[in-house]
Amino acid sequence: MKKEFVVIGLGRFGGSIVSELIELGANVMAIDITPSKVDEYADIATQAVVADTTDESALLSLGIRNFQHVIVAIGENIQASILTTLILKEIGVPKLTVKAQNEYHKKLLEKLGADHIVRPERDMGIRVANNVLSNNILDYLELSEEHSIAEIIVDGKVAGRTIIELNIRAKYGINIVAIKRQESIMISPQADEEILEGDVLIVIGSDSDIHNFEKKLFH
Predict the structure, then answer these.
(1) Which residues are in the RCK C-terminal domain (predicted)?
(2) pLDDT for 91
(3) How confident is the model over 168-201, as pLDDT tens digits?
């Protein structure tokens, strides 16, 4: 059975979510207050609807409470985002992901009970900054204010040594959760696994420990 989602707000962020979910085989109801935006996704989404999501009766008439996951991707209109989130929580939507514009907006959404809050511009800024800061960091995903997952490519300075030789957890306080090697991925690699040049280490830990690890071993 296909998973079903509602995406509210069809700007660049919301629209990309609709397209990707459809590509991954999900059913998606796409909603926006602007008819021209809805028209763009009429042939992409499972169902595309023009609606004012700050109107509770409009949401109820669409059967929103029957969907397991609603994504609020409303852009600049913070008031509409907050009112929509409030209504969705009140009518009992099981899971709610909301886009936040800033830290104040994020805090309000937390108080309203949003299950997951994303800040795409900020998150992308963090990823780009970390990528350009180091030639070895390929990707960077923030988990919390202080902890992240990073992809670090191995060069000749580390290649040929095992995880236990490098003593990574004890020395640097981070964990290698996987190793990407060419087309394969090794989950929870063994301590005696030899690290090869070109491997991509997927590590998890505090931001300071990840940067310390990358700086000490790859510079």
Answers:
(1) 135-219
(2) 93
(3) 888 899 999 999 998 899 998 998 999 999 999 9
Written out in words, the top-level CATH class of the domain with range 4-118 is alpha beta
Q: Hey, which bits of 73-154 come out as E strands?
A: 95-99, 116-118, 137-142, 147-153
Intrachain domains 4-118 and 123-218 with the same fold: no
C-alpha 174: how far from chain center? 21
d(CA 39, CA 50) in angstroms, rounded, equals: 9
The CA dihedral of 99, 110, 79, 71, to the nearest 10 degrees, is 40
Paired sense of beta strands 200-206 and 175-181, if any: antiparallel
Distance of alpha carbon 18 from alpha carbon 126, whole angstroms: 24
Q: What are the residue boundaries of the structural domains of the chain, listed by start?
A: 4-118, 123-218
Q: CA 53: distance to chain centroid?
A: 24
Q: Residue 211 to residues 1, 130, 173, 218: CA-CA distances in angstroms?
A: 43, 9, 11, 10
Tens of pLDDT, residue by residue over 18-75, are 998 998 889 999 999 999 999 999 999 999 999 999 999 999 999 998 898 999 999 7
**HSE-CB of 69 using CA atoms within 13 angstroms:** 16
User: Could you name the CATH architecture of 123-218?
Assistant: 2-Layer Sandwich (3.30)
127 — pLDDT class (breaks 50, 70, 90): low
